[in-house]
Design a protein that fits this description.
single chain; 22 strands; globular
Length: 425
């Protein structure tokens, strides 16, 4: 008997009919001889509705109480799903994140998993039950407070449980048929990828691909847990994410030179103007940002003007952290010694990802030619061995993605990409 962990996103359990459809799929996995653990997100837009409600009550809700509120969404889903499974004649037990043994640090709203001790889940499985776990949440190791894991937290919960339970696979069910070469809402001719390596998926996820989140893939790579991304709305084979290529029939699936094109419009750009061009200045700037617990993405420093000895440093970060970053830098203006700050949240990032890029000359030239032909201006550039990323105006992002996708021959012969639930997640 194998052990399978399945995760269902909010669009898959958006209403009563969706919950009953998911329950049938879970029961089918159980009938196939598997032990089944299910991680579930909140129904539809429940989390967003709870966030809006909190903001109406308090413009700056306390982190602890905010987490207590947000975890209610997943608890509703898990209980309803357990009821639906029992109605089909199978036993199911629901567990909150803390009951499932998901132990985190104490950072509210974006906690990180420290350990998973799934004793109660194992007991339930040994009794022949299907275990339903609320995703996106855990309990802090020191204070025993309820915590939430932030964006993509249910995916991370599922992979962490799969690792702790030594599962054969972690199935991530969403409202698209797998991972595509671009966002199917933007590129209708995007192709489904049959297999992609952890490394390429990490780059796509960190560059804005929303099907899988970065932390989830990172966790899976660390513990070598194969992920199968599938749609809960169809029975089609999805996308496998693993360290080694999967086998189909008598041959392995080859990895493409280019895995896909990702985009992200959730970032902003800060430019620190008039920074003294001397050792230690950049370190002071980014230590200030680090102390504010803000993650940054791309960085560029201009050549200093010989007459003034001053330079400008630009970097990108999540829009949601923009105000906090500006306040932190302003507070340390004397220590850094800059002239002014510029903030721009009308930017977008386009990334080309593929492990074959480093051994195929001409990829970089073709990428920039495609953007040029589309009339897209570039503001920042960042590269790695398997990724090229640029910052453009937010209004240019969709056109840029389509242009690059076509230029690298990624377009399907037909409109292959289907978004069943309307969100692509």
């Amino acid at each position: 008997m194998g052990l399978v962990v399945q995760k269902y996103g909010g669009s898959s359990v958006a209403d009563a009919e969706g919950i009953k459809r998911v329950a049938k799929r879970i029961v089918e996995a159980k009938k196939n001889g598997n032990q089944v653990v299910v991680v579930v997100s909140a129904m539809g837009d429940t989390t967003d509705e709870l966030i809006d409600l909190a903001e109406q009550v308090s413009p700056m809700p306390a982190g602890r109480e905010f987490d207590m509120l947000l975890t209610a969404g997943e608890r509703i889903s898990m209980a309803l799903l357990a009821m639906a499974i029992k109605n089909l004649g199978h036993e199911a037990q629901s567990f909150t994140g803390s009951q499932a043994g998901v132990i985190t640090d104490s950072v509210h709203n974006k906690a990180r998993i420290i350990d998973v001790t799934p004793g109660r889940i194992r007991e339930s499985l040994d009794k022949g039950n299907i275990a339903i776990v609320a995703g996106f949440q855990g309990v802090s190791q020191d204070k025993k407070d309820i915590t939430t894991l932030g964006r993509g937290g249910s995916d991370t919960t599922a992979v962490a449980l799969a690792a702790a339970l030594d599962a054969e696979v972690c199935e991530i069910y969403t409202d698209v048929d797998g991972v595509f070469t671009a966002d199917p809402r933007v590129v209708k001719k995007a192709k489904k990828i049959d297999w992609i390596s952890f490394e390429d998926m990490l780059e796509l996820a960190s560059s804005g691909s929303k099907v899988l989140l970065h932390r989830c893939v990172e966790y899976a790579r660390r513990y070598n847990i194969p992920i199968h991304v599938r749609s809960s709305f169809s029975g089609l084979q999805g996308t496998w994410v693993s360290s080694e290529p999967i086998e189909q029939g008598d041959k392995k699936v080859e990895q493409a030179i280019i895995s896909g094109v990702a985009h992200d419009t959730s970032e902003a750009k800060i430019t620190v103007v008039g920074v003294p061009d001397k050792p230690g200045e950049a370190a002071t700037i980014f230590r200030t940002i680090s102390d504010a617990e803000i993650n940054i993405d791309m960085i560029v420093q201009n050549v200093s003007a010989a007459s003034t000895g001053l330079t400008d440093i630009s970097f990108t970060l999540p829009k949601s952290e923009g105000r906090k970053a500006i306040d932190a830098l302003e507070k340390n203006k004397t220590g850094i010694g800059f002239d002014s700050l510029r903030y721009d949240d009308q930017i977008g990032k386009i990334s080309l990802v593929g492990a074959g890029m480093k051994t195929n000359p001409g990829v970089t030239a073709s990428f920039f030619e495609a953007l040029s032909d589309a009339g897209v201006n570039i503001e920042l550039i960042s590269t790695s061995e398997i990724r090229i990323s640029v910052i453009t105006r937010a209004d240019d992002v969709n056109e840029a993605v389509r242009a690059v996708h076509t230029a690298f021959g990624l377009d399907s012969d037909s409109d292959e990409a289907v978004v069943y639930g309307g969100t692509g997640r």
